[in-house]
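Quick check before the chapter quiz. The format below is the same one you will see on the exam, so make sure you can read both the input and the output lines.
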Amino acid sequence: MKTILELLTEKTAAAFEAAGYDSALGRVTVSNRPDLCEYQCNGAMAGAKQYKKAPFAIAQEVAEKLLECDAFSSVEALPPGFLNLKIKEDFLSSYLLDCAKSEKMGLNLPDSALKIIIDYGGPNVAKPLHVGHLRSAVIGEAVKRLCRFCGHEVIGDIHLGDWGLQMGLIIHELSLRKPELPYFDPAFDGEYPAEAPFTLSELEEIYPAASAKSKEDEEYKAAAMNATYRLQHGDRGCLALWQHIMNLSKTDLKKNYDKLNVSFELWNGESDVDSLIPALIERLDATGLLYESEGAKVIDVKEESDTKEMPPCMILKSDGASLYATTDLATLVMRMDETDPDRIIYVVDKRQQMHFDQVFRVAKKTGIVPEKTELKFIGFGTMNGKDGKAFKTREGGVMRLETLLGDIKDTMRKKMEENKNASDKDAGYDIDETAQMVSVAALKYADLSNQATKDYVFDMDRFTSFEGNTGPYILYTMVRIKSILKRWQDETGGDPASAILKGARSPQEKDIQMRLAGFNAMMAGAYEELAPHRICAYIYELADSFNSFYHDTKIMAEDNKDVQSGWIALLYLSLKVFESCIDVLGFEAPDRM
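Here is the expected output.
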């Protein structure tokens, strides 16, 4: 289905052609002066040089042709050559009716879906999630849902850090604390216990203690590295302990990601590709691009067009150990063999840009990833405190994500209780469940409304406000719409889905319709740019438009039932668009607040 701008451009292009000018000059855009007009066309100025004619004269001739058009209620030519346009109310409502009948409000879906893998999450096991993991999860989930909404086949992979030195540190520390465990007895050949010899809270204490010791004690670090080596080379006891660590960590990770409405189709980690690394090294060596530099094995990735330093990509350290680049390349080998995706999107801290530039170039140069497969890096900025520095606890430590979620939920509950519009005693209303829902919206919207690459300041008071550009404001608007629709349904017995949209009767109503008409183009643009912040900007403007209409229109007091039914249709369509948008952003709206 064509977007509203494409339709209006067709009309204007035909008018240019009818006036004797190139139809390509008829491109219509949304007006940057909404106080003067709704849409505009500046083609007359572009055509002035081509036709050696004053742009205003061209605009006047085209305006005369456009007066015969069924799409515009007002056409005005203004110096030096602007065409100011206003759309006819009936044309606009007719377009929206067509959108409502089509799949996804007229969004054009691809003839053939792309296979897309999104790499986001990236936590290390045996550690609790902290605020540093937030943006990858929130942005990655939104990008996944956006790609899926636009008709593509999408797989999300958490890409766990589960095979490095942190495993050896935990195993070695455990051997000192509980040497009697069978995992440390080389002669033990029985079945290991099904239950882990530690709890999750113990595990979360063991790792930082072991990490701190390793930084002060070289002998301790060497023993931990030896435990890592034994694990990676199949030691039976180490593998059994590793499996306990994985089981506990995954359960906790899933619990916390669930609270954020974040999920992964794949729970792969570095361990899943460890066995692929020897063959990878042979493959890279066979290309002739892998060479030795100061004992390490590297591949040059610098290109003539580079304006910044681009060092070689290190594949193996001088001691033969692999690195993140090695693991990421092996992961690409696995992904190409198992899925053969058209796109792989990495949602990672922007400070890792160079690392991924190197990995992508090696993957392309060596044929691990064919030219047809796009490798895309989405680098995000940091979430900072009001001091402009990385967000910390009051004590200066890194805040656990679970703690942050709890704090936001408590804040939202207090604000909702102060509102006193509803209480736990109201039938069918669970304030705790609602507070959880609204807190997730507050947190996700606060993050996603910013352009991903930019840092942003986390401001609890502002982000949990029911006013302004916030998640709670969006949800409050949706709840208001739901309340009106329910009241109308209860009073009339009608079905909002069957109400028929009418031509707008006021500027506020027309503004909502124009914004709804722009949904398909907005969503397509958000996908092209992989930019969830465009969806946030859209629903904030839509919410403002609706609330302006609501405050100026007595919907339920309207005596003309035909007019009222048209408004109900408008509210119903608005709600459906809101719901589509917030579903892509990864949160949901309650029925009451």
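If your answer matched, good. The longest helix spans residues 561-585.
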